[in-house]
Design a protein that fits this description.
Blueprint (H helix, E strand, L loop, with lengths): L2 H11 L6 H7 L11 H22 L5 H12 L1 H11 L9 H5 L6 H19 L1 H11 L16 H11 L6 E8 L6 E8 L4 E7 L2 H18 L4
Antiparallel strand pairs: 1-2, 2-3
Helix pairs in contact: 2-7, 3-4, 3-7, 3-8, 5-7, 7-8, 9-10
């Protein structure tokens, strides 16, 4: 990745990295190098959720907790992050292995959504929460945020979270249990644990995000069979 390409992206982000290596890592898929972006993605996911939660707390002051959670889920879902990543031009700079590049990885929603979260995580490590929050708010400034978004269908992770919150239980814990396949065509297996219920279910997907949704769906199904959901 040339200095000119990095400079152009930093201009679009409106953030100049003290450590440009963080940005390079954020744009590196596991199919390209062992120094990939998954840890940054993990960090960026939490930073993104906190920044969006703060944004919604301000903009939707009259909404209840459950409604805010539902709107946030709409804003941080893969489809939304994919569109924001395309707007930043991440598809043009993402670093992929040969096989992943040939199979269209630079346009794959899961890869670009994960890369955007990794970039947010990189900004957080580079300068702290305030610049990362500023980036998130800038990314979402053109996204219409209204209470009506709460009417959108709930994904399994959101549905499970709301079910637990309604019963004052601890939130689920997600862990990657394993990965299968070549780097450019991996399958993820994720565990979803409900500490208060002592229950663990697994889900499989083409991305960590998809596997988490599958695991949450498995937990919900088990609860419904038992008559708890």
């Amino acid at each position: 990745m040339t200095p000119a390409v990095l400079a152009a992206l930093q201009q679009r982000l409106q953030h100049t990295f003290r450590d440009p290596g963080l940005l390079v890592q954020a744009l590196t898929h596991r199919s390209f190098s062992s120094e990939h972006n998954e840890r940054l993605e993990f960090l960026g996911d939490s930073v993104l959720n906190l920044a969006v939660a703060g944004l919604l707390y301000e903009r939707l002051a009259d909404q209840a907790e459950g409604d805010l959670s539902r709107v946030r889920a709409n804003l941080v879902k893969q489809e939304t992050l994919h569109q924001l990543a395309l707007g930043l031009g991440l598809s043009e700079v993402i670093r992929l292995g040969e096989g992943e590049a040939r199979s269209g990885g630079s346009k794959r929603p899961s890869i670009l959504a994960d890369a955007l979260e990794a970039v947010i995580g990189a900004v957080y490590l580079d300068e702290g929460f305030a610049p990362a929050q500023t980036l998130v708010r800038r990314l979402f400034q053109e996204v219409e945020i209204t209470p009506q978004m709460q009417a959108a269908a709930k994904d399994p992770k959101t549905e499970l979270q709301e079910w637990l919150q309604g019963r004052r239980m601890k939130l689920p814990v997600y862990r990657v249990a394993g990965t299968l396949g070549a780097a450019h065509k991996q399958t993820f297996e994720v565990e979803c644990e409900i500490p208060d219920l002592g229950r663990v279910e697994r889900g499989i997907g083409a991305s960590r995000r998809a596997a988490e949704q599958a695991a949450a769906a498995a937990i919900l199904m088990a609860l419904k069979v038992q008559g708890g959901a």
